[in-house]
Amino acid sequence: MANRSRAITELAIRNIGVIDQAVLPLGPGFNVITGETGAGKTMVLTGLNLLSGARADADLVRHGAERLAVSASVSFHERSEGSLADLISEHSPEIEDGSLLLQRSISREGKGKAVVGSDPTTVSVLSAFAAEFFAIHGQGTNHRILDHGYQLQLLDRTSEKATEAHRVYSLKLEEWRTRSRELKEFEKALKDKDREIASLTKFLSDLDKVKPLADEWEEINQRIRRLDSVEDLRLAFSGAVSALDDENEGAIIRSVSALRSLEAFKESDDAFRDYISRLRAARIELQEIAAELSGELATLEVEPGELDRLRERLAALKHFLQRYRTEVDSDLSDPDAMRSLIAMGEERRILLRSLQQGDDQIEILRTEVERSLRELTQSANELTNQRRIAASDLSTRVNVELAGLGLDRSRFSIELKTGTEFTSSGADAVEFLFTAHDQGKPLPLSKGASGGELSRVMLAIELALAEHREVGTLVFDEIDAGIGGEAGLIIGERLARLAKHFQIIVITHLAQVAVWAERHFRIEKEANDQIVLSSVTEVHGDQRVIEIARMLSGQSDSDVAQKHARELLKHANV
């Protein structure tokens, strides 16, 4: 559905192509952009494409500039729902009075920067936000409409039921592929069943003999290192305790003697009181250290045979680890190797049970594959049915639009063929057909429509799809390619009606389209020292008449052309 609460309020372009700097204060209805060939009209579209995620091309940077930049201020209802609300919740961009700024810049070296609100982001996030506000129909879209995959996407977009059926189909397709893959792997395993069972049994037998614990390898190595140095530790700790706590020569008793020597003078000099305080603190610290060292000394008591038992256990673990470490792609220094082998043991117990019950298990898997295939087939049939309904509805609406665009004798139809192969898009193949005469044979668009007819067919499809778009802005570039004046008036009037529900931005060379716009921007080029620069100006009144006259005859000062321009503007009632 059209979303009139969303619109581009201002588009700013700097150093793109021949445009030095341009700001377009866009209105909510029909906006048109015109200018001479080579003035840079398409640079506006280029800017919007960059915001939509187009590839960064350093060649777009204006000659003599270091960096191009484009920004769009977009407005929306701050209590928006759906995918826009999800994006805002996830990325928390800076929003001011219901307005959000989308920006992208590219340096001459090809380095780019994307910004949403005031925060740097990725181009993919920027394009996701842009897609919520505007959709672009450029000259390239006319070529895309000939692609069968794109035709199928357009068809699905017209129907919520078809979209939901496609979602269900995708889930069923993934389930069927998963079940089929599991069956294939299990059948492969069963071919080498005896050898596989023997290998699994041997591994699990070795694992059960050793019964390793997850952190045991590190703990044993640490304990052995400690026990290997226990005698040296005992001597060190014992010597330290003796030096501190010997009743005759220990540091503690000597600190007591020092205190006694000074205490007789503590009242006579402040310095003595400070020394006494520090000596008391030192004595307490020495006593605590002596106590802790004595505690450590007590832990160095070794049970007889403990070191031998630990080394024997380590040898068993090492033998097991050396034998199977290649299966987890680890070496003896990897602390996670043993944990990986323990986890592998649980997986292999399950696989062993499955292989030992192979006949029963394979029947279960085959039943699951058959069930998932039936459900996939049902979902594919439902998707086809919804697409047929959508195809009939879209064809009717496109033909109504074609009649309104001056092709009242033409016929547009959609052919849907269903195959037996399940692909990510379903089991259907689609073909858009067209004939310019109601008695003619419908042919594929690539064969049945001329250049001008193809432009109008594409516009008719866009108009028919408009109500299914969530965006607030539709951008059309040269939608009138290959079309004459009378047809241009028809297209312009239809776009004007569409502008009652959407913000419309049209880049055109046809005066008959431009006269219907509520806001008219002219792009002009100027040569300065052999450098061509372009600027954008909004035209009103006589200036607009002059621009329309230029578009009609190529001569903006022609009285006849200006008279014709005024007549067209009066006809459009702008």
TrEMBL record:
Which ranges of the sequence are coiled-coil?
276-327, 355-393
Cite the SUPFAM superfamilies for this sequence.
P-loop containing nucleoside triphosphate hydrolases
In the UniProt record, does the keyword DNA damage occur?
yes
Instruction: Give the Gene3D superfamilies listed for this entry.
Output: 6.10.140.1090, P-loop containing nucleotide triphosphate hydrolases
Keywords from the named record: ATP-binding, Coiled coil, DNA damage, DNA repair, Nucleotide-binding
Q: Under the GO molecular function aspect, what terms does this record hold?
A: ATP binding
How is this protein named in the record?
Answer: DNA repair protein RecN
Q: Which organism is it from?
A: freshwater metagenome
